[in-house]
Amino acid sequence: MKRYVILGGGYGGLAIIGRLLEGELPADVQLVLVDRMPYQGLKTEYYALAAGAVSDVEIRVQFPNDPRVHIHYGNVQAIDLDAQLLHFSNGEPLSYDHLVIGLGCTDKYHNIEGAEQFGNSIQSLASTRRTYQLLNDIKPYGQVNIVGGGLSGVELAAELRESRADLNIRILDRGGRVLSSFPEKLSRFVSGWFEQHGVELRSHVNVSRLEDGVIYNRTDDGEEEIHSHVTVWTAGIQPVAAVQKLLVPKDPQGRVIINPYHQIPDYPNVFVVGDCASLPFSPSAQAAGAQGEQIADVIRAMWQGETPKLGKIKLKGVLGALGKKSGFGVVGKRAVVGYVPRVIKSGVLWMSKHHKG
Ligand SMILES: Cc1cc2nc3c(=O)[nH]c(=O)nc-3n(C[C@H](O)[C@H](O)[C@H](O)COP(=O)(O)OP(=O)(O)OC[C@H]3O[C@@H](n4cnc5c(N)ncnc54)[C@H](O)[C@@H]3O)c2cc1C
């Protein structure tokens, strides 16, 4: 038997499995999905769970229930590429013949003291549940600071505004505007929405350290103290710890360099998908899914002894939510704002929940 292990049942891993299961599997192939959770957590919706705007069960998707896929629960601690072994925090190691690494990403704290301890996370379902509890337990009119004005920070601030009208919500960003990687028109629209809805935006904030209840902003005159009942960290990501430990070539974001077939060049039996892979675009669920489909095509071509033919991955755009009724995004090359992108985003979510995306 040849064991194909897919590490991570997220957008990338499940796209591979879904596509492979569409056809026959060779008789000597065993497909194993490894995850630390018993279902997929729809990471693109973690901001809404943290804000208390959706329930936990609404953002879970069951893993495939197919006798051809064996599901192995476990928290991967280390990947030994030479011995072809996976080590878990509990239990026996698991060997593989072929591997896909699709473990996603975690927060990056940029060596800022106290950031990991006092900056609450929305990067895993477990950490999002803790953040949800803290945000929803804050006393009336308490102060929330969200460090990082990218997509997830903006979506969280807007959803929390709708979920808790009493809170004081502030986004602290290092740059001059929120959503700095999006067209300026979108940043202006989003800033206007925040102004109308009483969310404070502070730009050029240079967070130097965090303590319990205080964020320090390094300024030309010293350190400003910004008081905070709960701080959420959305100021950077990097691949998960098991991938950080891998001694293979990586890009400046810590993502593993791959060849055109999505394999680690020195370990062609190992593919890397999604947020762990060095792709020519920002990490996204859409990129992970599209790449996953290509990896499935490569694996199937290998089974048939053919050379895989892959096109260029084309992404459709990015969409963000501003609460339940407004949104923003880039569709093709067009910046779109208001109700329409919000409706499209809900449709995309529906498709991911029903494995149609
Ligand atoms: C708040 C927020 C909003 C976002 N919004 C969007 C959006 O609107 N559009 C978009 O395209 N992208 C969005 N993203 C990014 C998107 O969620 C990720 O790029 C996408 O989930 C990456 O897919 P993946 O398959 O690489 O990893 P994931 O989907 O994160 O899956 C990784 C899997 O690995 C498992 N895992 C991790 N570590 C271990 C371990 N040690 N042991 C065992 N299992 C493990 C996890 O349980 C998980 O099931 C958003 C992200 C966040 C945080």
> Helix share of residues?
25-40%
Distance between the termini: 31 Å
Based on CA atoms alone, the radius of gyration comes out at: 21 Å
Please give the number of β-strands. Answer: 24
Keywords: FAD, Flavoprotein, Oxidoreductase
Cofactor: FAD
Domain FAD/NAD(P)-binding: 3-292
Protein name: NAD(P)/FAD-dependent oxidoreductase
Give a short synopsis of this structure.
By secondary structure, the protein is α/β, with parallel strands linked by helices.
Q: Could you explain the architecture of this structure?
A:
By secondary structure, the protein is of the alpha/beta class. The strands form 7 sheets. Strands 5-2-1-9-21-20 form a 6-stranded mixed beta sheet, covered by helices on one side. A 5-stranded parallel beta sheet has the order 11-18-12-13-14. Helix 1 runs parallel beside helix 8. It contains 9 helices and 24 strands. The longest helix is centred in the C-terminal third of the chain and has 19 residues. The protein binds flavin-adenine dinucleotide (FAD). The site of flavin-adenine dinucleotide has 36 residues, from helix 1, strand 2, helix 2, helix 5 and helix 8.
